[in-house]
Amino acid sequence: MGTMNLAEALLSGLKNEMDSVTVYSEAAERAQGEVAKFFSERAAEEKRHYNWLLEYYKKVQGGSTPNYDLAAEVFGMDYKSPLITKEFINRLAADQYLVTAVATATLMEATAISFYRSAAESAPAKELTSFFTTLMQWEEHHYNELLSLQDELTQRWFEKQQFEPF
Question: What pTM did the predictor assign?
Fold first, then answer.
């Protein structure tokens, strides 16, 4: 976070979350079935992140101290989506736009992890450190799931390609 204050950190986090909402929402609109559901669920999670950050930002701007411990209760999620099956991978791999959306989302999650890690390390209060660390862990969950998905998509993509010129 460097010389960034709390309000600036929250605004940066808000922008990062909105970028993620956009990528996931647009991918969901383009997809169908379970693939659309997967992207819609990710968009909804990022909207929750955005709304929590917005609530905290408004409290900080109003001069009050937000309840940072709320994050620990809300973010406790560590699973691989049951939507990710072989058929799901095949459907996703069939659409280059969606494959690119996964790659973009993976990169965005990595950026969010780095941002929240930095914010946690330079936070002025223990509770705020915990809050940003929790956000970082949530994004790590997304990143690891997307990275695994991206690896499977890459393998499927190479199996499918005939390497012809454009």
Answer: 0.81
